[in-house]
Design brief:
This protein has 4 helices and 9 strands. Helix 1 packs antiparallel against helix 2. 19% of the residues are buried. The C terminus is likely disordered.
């Protein structure tokens, strides 16, 4: 194990511990998903949502290795009003970097008319697309008349199946924005240096998926 790999692995564990979201469990899951690969770069993104009297948290961890992008997502949910009974739902996915088709960074800067090279982005959105697959979310269609009980069929959205992370300097800190930017840079470097596999008509199979991605476990494409 090289010194840089040891440093990156230690930095990953420190960031998981700093996030404070079941750090021991999340670290075990992430390292298991790495399959003994050494991390080159990572992003740890924790979000908290408030729903009436309930607090919902989830964490997304992206880890880049020489040949894989390993994505781990963990949600928690309380099963009783007192919050004594909790459950964690975990999914991991390993994507070969050769399959990554695009890495998109979107920035938001405050007061662009006063921009200086030393200014940091106020917000950054990192979008990674890899499979070309799509998710179809459907539901009953309706109309503007609240008294109407006619059958309007179904409506839905086709969503590109990828990963999108929004990092805000206000919510996550300026360093988190820089970390996401550095991760995207490392991902682009590995991705562009990896030969793209030649696909034939026999190997390309279109696919569509109904529902959400939260129920799937660890797998490799």
């Amino acid at each position: 194990m090289s010194h840089s790999s040891t440093t990156e692995r230690r930095s990953l564990d420190e960031d998981l511990n700093r996030a404070g979201f079941y750090p021991v469990m999340v670290a075990d899951v992430v390292h298991d998903a790495l399959d003994e690969r050494e991390p080159l770069s990572h992003v740890v993104h924790l979000e908290t949502h408030f729903d009436r009297n309930e607090v919902h948290r989830h964490i997304t961890v992206l880890v880049l290795t020489e040949d894989m992008l390993v994505i781990t997502h963990v949600d928690d949910q309380q099963l009783d009003d007192a919050g004594q009974q909790m459950v964690a739902q975990i999914s991991t996915e390993s994507v070969p970097v050769s399959q990554i088709r695009s890495v998109v960074l979107s920035y938001i800067y405050a007061q662009p008319q006063d921009y200086k090279p030393s200014d940091q982005a106020r917000e950054l959105t990192l979008a990674i697309a890899w499979s070309g697959g799509q998710r179809l979310d459907m539901g009953p269609a309706g109309c503007a008349d609240p008294q109407c009980d006619a059958d309007h069929g179904y409506t839905g959205n086709i969503v590109q199946e990828d990963i999108v992370l929004r990092v805000s300097a206000e919510a996550d800190g300026a360093q988190a924005v820089q970390n996401a930017k550095s991760f995207a840079r490392a991902l682009r470097k590995v991705n562009t240096s990896t030969p793209v596999p030649v696909r034939t008509a026999e190997t390309v199979q279109p696919r569509q998926r109904l529902g959400t991605r939260l129920a799937r476990g660890h797998h490799q494409r």
